[in-house]
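I hope you will forgive my troubling you with a question about protein structure. The matter concerns a single protein, recorded as an amino acid sequence and a row of backbone structure tokens. Please examine both parts with care and let me know of anything in them that strikes you as inconsistent. Thank you for your consideration; the sequence and its tokens are set out here:
***
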Amino acid sequence: MDTFLQSKQEEMLQLIEKLVNIDSGSDDKEGVDKIGAILKEKYEELGFVVEVREEENQGNHLLIQHKEAVDPKIILVAHMDTVFPKGTVAKRPFSIEGDRAYGPGVVDMKSSQVELLYALKALVTTGTPGFENVQIILNSDEEIGSPTSRALIEEKSQGKEYALIVEPARKDGSLVSSRRGGGRYKLVVKGKAAHSGIEPQKGRSAIEELAHKIIQLHGLTDHEKGISVNVGLIEGGSAVNTVSPRAVAHVDIRISEMEQAEMLQQKIKEICSTTEVSGTQVTMKGKISRPPMEKTEQSESLLQVIQEVGKEIGIDVQDTSTGGGSDASFTAANGVATVDGLGPVGGNAHSEDEYLEIPTLIERTLLLAKTIQRLTEDE
């Protein structure tokens, strides 16, 4: 497989360029579906059956497995959407400088899409076991929390033994063995407007009440336990000389263990059940939308298999924890041994400087292909 993949690097880079140069932000259904149509054709050429799960607003999801597959035990998940708005490609299309490729979504995760495709292509072409033991979900909304694909991922991961998530590897090449879970809340404070010069005593400041809430919410943060609460966006008021009648806070929370979720939600509810500024009212909406991906004995065993495969092909595979979310949380919460970060190495995802380390493309594709082979042969 090594020789086969080495001969395909230029072909892989050409496909990455093609995918990167299509805008496919999470809300750009047309663009995401263009990506899906290209990948659907590529998989069908390899003998895979592709089921299109239609979505009205977000892009369609693809459910893929080989025509010879019978009860596959490995689920692979990769998203087709990016965080970049329509028009980004026109401003900074795919480019290569030295050993790095640049462009919107180049590493998160259009290179991963190509890696996954070619890992399976290597298995099929060389007749190596494994291609018939995988079920693949290519989803369209991971960057916005997977609201329409979560149920599909949870459904299809039931009964699977292994979940391989091909988000990009970390900058140092590490895989991801645990992730913090999290969610979003929206607090709306209702006050009473009044002229701040003529009759301020008649007003009830929503902004003042929100200030108290922000301090109380931030007080829930406990970095040692992996809990963080961040009010990242606020809005309120109607004029500088008016006591604010309304204020809003958007809150991001992160947890490291699922048992922290109920505790944190209860404390947020308690904070919002009382007011410091008489005459104001607080309403709260939100939830924890991603469970944490916790490192388990099963995922540790899966990681060890990947590390053994890495040694065989000359890669020192390390693992790390990260605060960012991914679809790995859903498979892990289903009790499936899960390892994330199996894509190529790169960095600065979600920014104008996002890049792919080109020399890692073939080695990580080989690592993924041989991991699928090993897990299949070990059954």
The chain has a mean pLDDT of 97. The two ends are 21 Å apart (CA to CA).
